[in-house]
User: Fold this.
Amino acid sequence: MALYRDEGVVLKTVKLGEADRIITLMTKQHGKVRAVAKGVRRTKSRFGGRLEPFMRDDLLIAEGRSLDVVSQAASISSYAARICVDYDAYTAANVIAETTDKLVSTEHEPARSQYMLLISALAALARAQHPSEAISDSYVMRALSQAGWTPRLSSCAVCGKRDDLDYFSVASGGILCSTDHTPDSRRIDLDGREQMEALVEGDWNVLDHAPLKAEIRRFVEEWGEYYLERPIRSLKLLDS
Assistant:
């Protein structure tokens, strides 16, 4: 089998047989990869804890017919160690990993910008640089924006007007004015618009200033569900 080396982050794992696991990875050069880690569930596994969710590893992978096989794994950054001891950070990391997995649907298709955004978000969680919910919500909006789904926030998505921007509609693609707002739209105030803009831009001067408004968190959840065409289940846990 042909071998390739890459670095990647473990997004999730699924048990396979008595001792193996299927590992879903987001890699730097090869995009999303699903691979078997043989014997990883044994007490004396040669992989240790390096193939657990949120670990960033240097990987040697063998190409397979249906699934690749992890041959070697060396830790680059142990984000999991700090994330998993904090419930808020752990739940936020699950939002990030789930969003990546659902957003990057095609395997072995390079998505370097998505990978860099992923490791930046996990590193920020591990270092507790910002509130956990702000990191995960900003990640969702920025990842979707990179994929082409950026909300329109500076002018009405219907008429282009730049004043009386009092409504937000996920289906319409962003902010709407008082005249052209649609039945599904909901009110959003100036502070809410600023927070939404900050989430999309990663403006921590704004996001660190005050907790995210409840309606903005709902907009993020709805934006992700609408454009991914399925819910981000971990976001619902973070809201509960």
